């Protein structure tokens, strides 16, 4: 197990479970593949890695090399933020096309965080899964639960916001908020 610092990119489709209950299996698979492509392609295009799909959700990471300092950290963080904005734009375009043909649509929530993770092959002797674990992974998933209450499709942790370089994209502070199973309230941005 290694413990590098990573940018964590977590996103989830709103209403996927309810929509899944109303669609047939093949239709659901096709719909989900269209949406997941909108989520994954921006991450991969900017040097990130998609680690897993979980129903209507996705976890990706951007590696922060141990060398390169704040400049490299800033560049990678900006790339992750651009991937998030691109994914949201692609979902919006997909929804426009689906609405035009009177098909169901889903919104996307995206969260960005930065922290140390442990990664490796985890599981049972019969089924291993390469993934990341640790408090930072829990926090990025808990951030997503704040998107709807705060009426935001993109939420960013202070740890991630601190990595954005001076003169980079400006972020809007949203104050401190408690996250389920996280000890201290966290500063959130969008």
Task: Describe how the helices and strands are arranged.
Blueprint: E1 5-13, H1 16-22, H2 25-45, E2 49-54, E3 57-63, H3 69-100, E4 108-116, E5 118-124, E6 127-133, H4 135-144, E7 154-157, H5 158-161, E8 173-177, E9 186-189
Parallel strand pairs: 4-7
Antiparallel strand pairs: 1-3, 1-4, 2-3, 5-6, 7-9, 8-9
Helix pairs in contact: 2-3
Can you put this structure into words, describing what you see?
By secondary structure, this protein is of the alpha+beta class. It has a single domain (5-189), classed as Nucleotide cyclase, GGDEF domain (Alpha-Beta Plaits). It has five helices and nine strands, in the order E-H-H-E-E-H-E-E-E-H-E-H-E-E. It has helices at residues 16-22, 25-45, 69-100, 135-144, 158-161; strands at residues 5-13, 49-54, 57-63, 108-116, 118-124, 127-133, 154-157, 173-177, 186-189. It has a seven-stranded mixed beta sheet with strand order 2-3-1-4-7-9-8, sandwiched between helices. Strand 2 and strand 3 form a beta hairpin. The longest helix is centred in the middle third of the chain and has 32 residues, at 69-100.
């Amino acid at each position: 197990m290694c413990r590098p610092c990573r940018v964590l990119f977590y996103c989830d489709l709103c209403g996927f479970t309810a929509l899944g209950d109303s669609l047939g299996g093949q239709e659901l698979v096709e719909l989900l593949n269209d949406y997941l492509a909108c989520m994954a392609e921006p991450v991969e295009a900017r040097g990130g890695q998609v680690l897993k799909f979980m129903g209507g959700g996705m976890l990706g990471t951007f590696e922060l090399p141990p060398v390169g300092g704040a400049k490299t950290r800033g560049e990678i963080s900006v790339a992750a933020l651009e991937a998030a904005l691109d994914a949201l734009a692609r979902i919006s375009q997909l929804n426009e096309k689906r609405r035009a043909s009177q098909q169901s649509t889903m919104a996307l929530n995206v969260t960005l965080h930065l922290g140390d993770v442990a990664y490796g092959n985890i599981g049972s002797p019969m089924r291993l899964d390469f993934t990341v674990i640790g408090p930072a992974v829990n926090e990025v998933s808990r951030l997503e639960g704040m998107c709807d209450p705060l009426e935001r499709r993109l939420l960013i942790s202070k740890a991630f916001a601190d990595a954005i370089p001076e003169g980079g994209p400006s972020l809007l502070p949203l104050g401190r908020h408690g996250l389920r199973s996280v000890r201290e309230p966290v500063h959130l941005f969008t």
